[in-house]
Amino acid sequence: ARGASLTDFADKVGVDAAQLVQMLFHLGEMVTATESVNEAVLDLLGEELNYVVQVVSPEDEDRELLSSFDLEFGEDEGDDSDLSVRPPVVTVMGHVDHGKTRLLDALRSANVGDKEAGGITQHIGAYQVTTDVDGTDRRITFIDTPGHEAFTSMRARGAQATDIAILVVAADDGVMPQTVEALNHAKAAGVPIVVAVNKIDKESADPTKVRGQLSEYGLVPEEYGGDAMFVDVSAKSELNLDKLLEAVVLTADASLDLRANSEQDAQGLVIEAHLDRGRGPVATVLVQRGTLRVGDSIVAGPAYGRVRAMLDEHGENITEADPSRPAMVLGLTATPGAGQTFLVVDDDRMARQIAEKREARERAAMQAKRRVRRTLEDFMAS
Ligand code: GTP
Ligand code: MG
Asked: Which residues are involved in binding GTP (predicted)?
């Protein structure tokens, strides 16, 4: 709660910050909505709202919960010799209509075999492609959820899935507000950017202008002496897609040391999840470390279960998933939220215990929020 403002507090509890300001005013405290408040003010609010102000963050609390089971998310992966190279995980970002979806589709279908008859591509929220770079097959994982939700919602939860951002800029439109927004998100996350200057098939395309515009935002193309790779592409005409993939690999090699221990118990993130009528809860997860296997007991947010089956982006059964690989997991008891973490644990019992504790905590937090809202309403009415 350090540095928290009334706005932060109000957001957390789902009330109006202005009402909190008003309430405090009645209690003799002059506080604005955005200034950070001290603990005394939080205590006063807590007392008045019949709410125990939590000084512990939910993240800390969860860390404690896991550690009571001798678990840690993001635990040390061991020595250099235990680590092997893992593929980069890429998110595509950019202004509305600049071609993110079309580019993701083109990259996916440009990949081996996807166009074959019968090879139905499943939308699982992430996929992997293989590309040849200097005679070596290199894999890249794309997170395929709409917009940059994956990126932002996961970051908001403190989890980072993305290693590299592809910034899509339509060459006819040039840099637009959400281009800059995306750029800032990636910068804030410390994620290197590869620029895909898209729609170069168009008459009105001006890729040079895009380079000039982005240079002004500090994203200077290599050919201008900067360190960002720009690739002119057309998602529509499937032009230069291989060059774009190569740029991603080269950027990963040049500025990131992407390695993971594939021997340990798997840990990673939930990319998306839904309830399938026939199959029950279905979650697409991204393995970040370790290897996930059919039969593993896992806990994912407040959901748990044993991995009954795993499918890849082609809808084919796989028995294991190594670091950076996305997989659709069947066998959970409930649908976890996007951005929540998953961990392999010793057995089903442990998975259930952790999940139940998380659920109880979520329920208690919800009840507390409801109570605060009710008290505040009463206060306002009096
Ligand atoms: P939002 O998801 O709404 O933000 O848009 P988006 O960035 O996903 O754009 P989308 O892929 O839906 O493309 C927007 C429009 O541009 C569609 O009509 C695409 O067919 C078209 N488009 C995308 N890429 C190209 C391209 O390389 N050339 C041309 N000519 N059109 C393209
Ligand atoms: Mg789209």
From this structure: 94-101, 144-148, 198-201
